[in-house]
Amino acid sequence: MSTDARRDLIDWDPNDPQRWDSKVAWSTLWVTTFNLMLAFIIWYLPGALIPTLGTVTGWDLSESQSYWLLAMPGLTGGLLRIVWMMLPPMLGTRKMLTLSALLMIIPFVGWTWVVMLPTQPSYALLVALALAAGLGGGVFSGYMPSTSYFFPKSKQGTALGLQAGIGNFGVSVVQFVVPWAIGFGMFGLAGQLAHPQNAEPRQVWLQNPGLIFIPFAVVGVVLAWTLLKSVPVKANLKQQFDIFQNKHTWLMTMEYVLTFGIFSGLAGTFGMLLKQQFGPEYLTWVFLGALVGSLARMCWGPLCDRFGGGVWTVVSGIGVAASAGLVLFGQVTVADGQIPSLPIFMTGMVLIFFFCGVGNAATFKQMPMIFPARQAGGVIGWTAAIAAFGPFLFSMLFNYLPRTAVFGGIIAYALLCAGIAWHFYARPGAEAKS
Question: Which residues cross the membrane (predicted)?
């Protein structure tokens, strides 16, 4: 195996020990994972800022406007994933990742600038910046399939579980950092006065998160350009679209919507749900859901390599349904005008994130086992693209439907997916046991 002047790996086959270099594979994983975490940070940065932004003097965002802004990154995240799923075999890992990392600096700078304005800019500008943040969600469908080219099937559950799990930490990182970082001044820059509902006015510095993350985004560009290589997996658009002739593409799309669609959708709306039901003082706990889900996704990769992904997808579906049932129980057992129990709500929500994390690891183990190498990357990209609409979907659902209807729908869908996973992928003699 050798590398040409363009940093392309020659004669690379991860399933042949003589044609695989573990050092190259793992270094690619860590550089890509670092950039993936930054991608999730910018994808969820608007969601972390918006609940506070509406309380700042000079700004006036209604609840409906806030939900629409929360929805926009999910809309572009899903659409751009359809684009990015095609890029790995066309551009190669190095070019694709460097270009993606460069583009993500734009929304980082945009959100840092706009929150420093003394008065609210046009709503159209906020929508445009929210749409731009969706780039962080879109690149996932390029990063993950690209990484799958570097590892043998026996290690893909571990590798992809680590990458996606650690990358997903970006959600909890931004949700933890924003409430902390906006509480103090940096570089002598002016703050703004916020008037949270039922709380004392306080000074906030909403530009701080962007100022903290932008240098890391620059480092991500440098690492991608200097350390990454590309593998000879080539496919034109026509070849990539043959995945849609396989019914398992559509079944695995349903399973990944169960896991990552619900994870991303609830992560994007968790802050607004907490603020509306229990008050803004509880926003400091919003990071817990994504943190638990990301840990589960990372830790369950080796278990999926050992026991197979299908059985854990079944466990995920049953667990999500039971956990959503706990949230629903807390919602329907309170009298009119009462506030639901915070412990019940938080326990149910965190358990949903946990079982979504288990299912995320399981489905990423399944896809390389069900599909040949060239198709597996495309299927991973496609399923991730559809699931990335989660933030858009859940923002719309919570904007227009009662919470009881939303969580009731989660229960029904999770049980349906658990049944499909058992029949096709987990039971003895399953058609595509994985």
Answer: 24-45, 65-84, 96-117, 123-144, 165-190, 210-228, 249-270, 282-300, 312-332, 344-364, 376-398, 404-425
